[in-house]
UniProtKB/TrEMBL annotation:
Subcellular location: Membrane
Xref: Gene3D superfamilies: Phosphatidic acid phosphatase type 2/haloperoxidase
PANTHER family assigned to the protein according to its UniProt record, in alphabetical order: PA-PHOSPHATASE RELATED-FAMILY PROTEIN DDB_G0268928 (PTHR31310:SF7), PTHR31310
Cross-referenced CDD domains: PAP2_Aur1_like
Membrane topology (UniProt): Multi-pass membrane protein
Protein name as annotated: Inositolphosphotransferase Aur1/Ipt1 domain-containing protein
Organism annotation: Adineta ricciae (Rotifer)
Amino acid sequence: MTLNEYFRLKHVPFLDVLSGICYLNWIPIPIIYSLYLYRYKSKRDYIDFAFTFLLTNMLGFIIYYIVPAAPPWYVALYGFDMNMKAPGSPAGFIHFDQIIGVKIFSSMYSKNANVFAAIPSLHAAYPVITVLYGSLSKKLWLHIGFVIFTLGVWFSAVYSGHHYVIDVLAGGTCALTAFLLYRLLSRQPMINRLLVAYSKLI
């Protein structure tokens, strides 16, 4: 039995709500932090964060199309046969919708155009970027908060049945790879000059 299968049988209302809140903030919190860097730190910090975010997405989408992978909820419903017409599913987050009385996840995932994009998990990747750049804030409590937030999203991804553990680890690796690749590229003299010039324009 995988963790996804266990949590599908043993879900807890408190964790249903907590995991839903964490999952809903996978994009808002990184974006808010990037705006914080733009407003209160240097423009270069903001650019570094933004381009790492962009590179993470590029790597993630490339892998999606090279290695299409089904999420746990799909396997539970359809097995290992590829059904290209299968609609998206809120999976375990249906409990969040039922508890708060609003169909947030049900509505969101009904519009999912590609159910075979489980690996790498960009839900798991985005919070990692906030951890990697969290030290720029010079606030220890905020950096620790990003670590807790990342672990919360990772747990939520598995708890809800949207990702296997390997998907989550792949997402974290994707973000780290993008971070290291960007640092390598940004240190090239020509690229660094372009980034410096761009930071003066925004």
